[in-house]
Amino acid sequence: MRIAIDAMGGDNAPQAIVEGTLQAARANRDVTLVLVGDEEAIQRCLGSERPPNIEIVHTTEVITADDEPVRSVRRKKDSSMVVAARMVKEGQADGFVSAGNTGALMTAGLLVVGRIPSIERPALASIWPTFCGKAMLVLDVGANMDAEPLHLFQYGLMANAFAKELFDLKKPRIGLLNIGSEPGKGDKLRKEAFELLQNGSFDFVGNIEAREAMYDKCDVLVADGFTGNNMLKLIEGFGLGLFDRLRDVFMAGTLTKLAAFVLKPGLRKFKKTFDYSEYGGAPLLGINGAVIKAHGSSNARAFEMAIEQARRFIAGGVLEQIRSDLEVQQQ
Question: What would be one Gene Ontology cellular-component term for the protein (predicted)?
Answer without folding.
Answer: cytoplasm
